[in-house]
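Chapter review: from sequence to fold.
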Amino acid sequence: MPTERTRSRASTTSRAAIIEMLKADHKKVKKAFREFEKLDPEEDSEQCQAIVEQTLADVQVHATLEEELFYPAARSSLSDQDLIDEAEIEHMTVKVLIEQLKSMTPEDEKYAAMFKVLGEYINHHVKEEEGEMFPKLSRAKGDWDGLQEEMTSRRAELEQEFMPHGSAVPDEDMEGEDAKAGSMSGRSSAAARGGTSRSARGEGGARAQAAGGEEDEEEKE
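The token string follows.
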């Protein structure tokens, strides 16, 4: 029978793995925005559209996981409820931009500008998550083992729902430990568990979007 110390150690490991998974999502999306900046929407319209479609799907998967599972767990563990409230409101703003982009094509005059503005919102959102929320959760207690399993299983379902078929954008920077964290979605592991997400799935509210990340400052300049 596991001791209290063993359970605590396992929970700490799961909590760290969850946060690293979310950070890996942030990194992937930020890379996509940088790649888009290098393209000309007129000359590289197909590539631009592929990046946009994949990024919107990545953001939807990430944001839904946060709203349905991660934020409810964070809310129960943090005394600063404002952090969660602000994050959920930021998701709502990002959702509006995503819906507008879905109705546009690279030929639209404001297509590139809309995607860039989305990136700015996401970058701001992630600075607050990685700079404030995640550090405050670093010692928070909770059922992190159970949450990790639920997020892994739910991610596999969301990827089937949101991901565009055959339009994945390669993420060459996702190597080593980052790749492991980003691949925690593990379709095979989710299938093995056969689990379903808890009732918090409905509590998270509407499926909104957010991602982004605080990355190297020099990349922005």
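Two observations follow directly from the output. The chain has one domain: 4-167+179-220. Residues 4-37 form the longest helix (34 residues).
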